[in-house]
Design goal:
alpha/beta; about 325 residues; 2 domains; Spore Coat Polysaccharide Biosynthesis Protein SpsA, Chain A; disordered C terminus; single chain; nine-stranded mixed sheet
């Protein structure tokens, strides 16, 4: 790692809390990057008490302590950007691991011209026995660059909600930004979807955003049904609030059931594991359907009721000034 700020090309910002189980793998993956010598790592810790801070002493990182009560996904990351020194700022998370030593290079490769404000990579699930085989990474096509831009904000605004959601499928698990642009278009004060909102703001401001699926990280959450329910309710809530998108009803079709069965059958796992993962995926579907049902019933009674229901299940959400108006 460089010691002079003038030599830093990339600042890697990682919000952390009680990450002792994952940070060794995350840090080692970053330190193996071909561009690591031109990088710095900024840790934003919000109250870890599990040995995380002691573990981080092994690594060349700068740690800033964030009061847990003041943490949110937008403002906390903005603080990290302010403390950074690189031309580019990479966002990732404590339980993500670069899939190759070229992860940082692939993010930088996406800056194909000066109009590119940011580059987003792809998170993938490794073929590990403790991870859902249905989500294992099975690429159909090779990695590719996709550039998106609009000459006027009105062009973006005129798009159907679903297309807006797809174009703004940004992901701070693996994303890189021009620091100067991120300072001018900071993240919103929100508890969720700060990345998608940033992509929306950048596109409306006339910048180009790039998706580069070669910039991959391994990332996986083993979800209990209650967590899946709350996460999907929040996803539905924020997508409606910021993109006016109303999700379709989840349908567990016979075709999809057959696909899952075939996936499980062809993997070299025991019959007991196949049964376990089948039930796991059924539980995930039921949780997603419940989230849809709760969302739809609340929205049917009005946006105020939707706010109340989301707060009841997921907590009060600090909202961007764009809420239901942009």
């Amino acid at each position: 790692m460089t010691t002079g700020n003038e030599n830093i090309l990339i600042s890697i910002v990682i919000p952390v809390k009680n990450g002792v189980s994952w940070l060794d793998a995350c840090m080692k993956g970053i330190m193996q990057q071909t561009l690591f010598a031109k990088s710095e790592i900024i840790i934003l810790d919000s109250g870890s008490d599990d040995g995380t801070l002691e573990l981080l002493k092994k690594y060349p990182v700068t740690v800033y302590n964030i009061p847990p009560a003041s943490f949110n996904h937008g403002d906390t990351r903005n603080f990290g950007v302010e403390k950074s020194n690189g031309k580019y700022v990479v966002m990732t998370v404590q339980d993500a691991v670069p899939s190759s030593e070229n992860w940082l290079q692939e993010l930088i490769n996406g800056f194909v011209n000066d109009d590119v404000a940011g580059v987003c990579g792809q998170q993938i699930v490794p073929h590990d026995a403790d991870k859902n085989p249905v989500q294992w990474f099975r690429p159909v096509n090779g990695p590719a660059l996709k550039e998106i831009s609009f000459s006027k904000a009105a062009e973006f605004d005129s798009l159907p909600p679903l297309q807006k959601v797809k174009l703004c499928g940004w992901d701070d698990v693996t994303a890189c930004y021009r620091r100067e642009i991120l300072l001018n278009i900071p993240f919103e004060h929100v508890t969720f979807a700060e990345d998608a909102l940033w992509a929306k703001a950048a596109l409306r401001a006339g910048y180009t955003i790039v998706y580069n699926t070669a910039a991959r990280v391994f990332h996986y959450h083993h979800e209990e049904p209650d967590f899946t329910f709350k996460r999907n309710l929040t996803v539905n809530y924020f997508r409606y609030s910021f993109f006016e998108f109303v999700p379709p009803k989840p349908v567990f079709t016979f075709k999809r059931k057959l696909q899952i069965i075939k996936m499980l059958q062809r993997e070299k796992i025991s019959p007991g594991q196949k049964l376990y993962w089948w039930k796991y995926n059924v539980d995930l579907y039921n949780a997603r359907k419940r989230a849809y049902d709760v969302f739809s019933a609340a929205l049917g009674k009005g946006e105020d009721q939707l706010d109340l229901v989301h707060e009841q299940y997921c907590g009060k959400a600090p909202m961007s000034k764009q809420k239901k108006s942009a």
